[in-house]
Predict the structure.
Amino acid sequence: MSINATLLIQIIAFVLLVWFVNKVLWGPLSKLMEERQKKIADGLSAAEKGKHELELAEQKAKEVLKEAKSQAQNILSQAEKRSSEIVEDAKVKANEEADRIKAAAQAEIEQEVSRAREDLRKEVASLVVTGAEKILQKEVDAAAHNDMLETLVKSI
Amino acid sequence: MGTVEYIQHHLTNNHIGEGFWTFNLDTIVVSFLLGALIVFVSARLGKQLETGKPGGFQNFVESILDFVSTNVRDAFPGHNPLIAPLALTIFVWVWLMNFMDLIPVDLLPYLFQLVTGDPHAHLKIVPTTDLNTTLAMAFTVFALIIYYNIKIKGVGGFIKMFLFHPFGKFFIPVNVVMTFIEEVSKPLSLALRLFGNMFAGELVFLLIALIGGTLAVGAAALFWAPLQVLLDLGWLIFHLLVITLQAFIFMVLTIVYLGMAHDEGH
């Protein structure tokens, strides 16, 4: 157990071993482990980013949906308004039409009445002439008494 | 064979040479084999690394690597690409060399004696029970400590550290002695702690081995042999903690010492 030249050999062996371990084992393996660490960190951050993006997309989708809903509501209310307008319009038109028809009917009735009255007059005139002929036993010259008859007819 | 002889025999390295130029062959061969194991395994693993789905063994190595780099990050200020591989090498190599302690104390020496045909052949298979191994690592670390002290603080800063630390400029002689002791105690405590722990652990294994061996004669073996098994198992489990702890302490102290060398305010 005395110190001797073995010491020198052991020093050389130790130095060589350290050099070799560094070159072959520590260097590549720690590099690999570092790479793996980086890869994992990258993956995690990418996942985080993806999650964030998903959240954003969800938010956006919600917004779009909300907008679409409000738009639909808008369209619906507009359509309702329009339909009530149309109904109102139709009502007004129908009323006008009815009034018009009524007026036309009224006019026709009046025309009919006046025509009937005219016919009646004429009838009465001829009846009067005939009656007078009967009474006088002679023919009355219709033409000669036309003016008188006319006056008569008008007075009826 | 007597008890003392048995223990001494076990604690003698198989060596060649004389005086300083003695080479402890068993220490060198075993530590080189374990180093070669690390080299072989890392070279094989290095060729088939996978990012996506690492296999079981890669996971295991990665967890060791993660453990070491966490320790480096906690104890080492700043950045130096040498520290982490150095710490990893220390941890794994020291652990493997310590692990030799858990192989039954007589197994490999016995096999070695059979193979060589020499019944007195020495073989001490735990390299960390040889002071040369632990000092070799400690001195290497010490050289790095001095190198980084000078590199980070400059030669002037390094000298200033000796002159004005820890008591300020009025105690320069005391400071030089104190700082010198502080610096020299770093490699010595590193080496001696590991060596002492492993040596003592090996010794306890030898003593336990003696219970069923030399002590047991005839019918007494019926009592001593189970006791030896029980004690051996207990010490083995405890020692498994010790070898890991010692490897860990050597690694962490290396990191801390080098961190202190990088600390400019020191």
